[in-house]
Amino acid sequence: MLKKAIYFSPLGLIISCIQNVVKVFTTPFMVYGYWNSPTKSLRRFTRVSSSVIFVDKKNINISENCWIWHYSILDGSNNIEIEEGVQIGAWVGIFTHSSHAAIRLHGKNYINIDSDKRVGYSRGPVKIGAYSFIGAGACILPGVVIGKGSLIGAGAVVSKSVPEFSIVHGNPAKVVGSSLDIDKKFFDSPEIQNSYFDDIIIKRYLAGDRFDKI
Length: 214
Hints:
Number of helices: 6
Order of helices and strands: HHEEEEEEEEEEHEEEEEEEEEHHH
């Protein structure tokens, strides 16, 4: 409690600034407080490892209450949006461009061609919906939208968009279930009814929807 009291006080801002400086000289650790370049605002309750690599950080919009663990890489060259409450494990790659075809098609001329003129050059923004979980070692490819409340398994290679509340495993990744099947077991608890991230889902449950068909 004392730790939270200090962090949520004005002193917490000073601690966050110190951490951001110290991270350059030490082993990876979680930095409390993230400066979000697109909105030019501090995400005070977002925590990002000092070892996370950002490419084109100005195009990476991270919301509040997010967590990004060690040694992940976020390629913002074609925009990344991470909504509130998303948790991202270690060694995760989120990519918004790929030259996997263009490098063969253009051969040695590849380096001399502007990226927007390269044939076969793949690009697309990535969006990760609120309170989704991305497991360690997962790879999210260009153009993918992950619906809110989804659970992406460790090591999954996600090349296609997935609906809200999806459970996704494998390479290539496939939807294998719904996170609502996990969550609804706890919906009778008043505590969970008051804390669950999606008010609409709770209202539907209280109205009699048991999500037998999702």
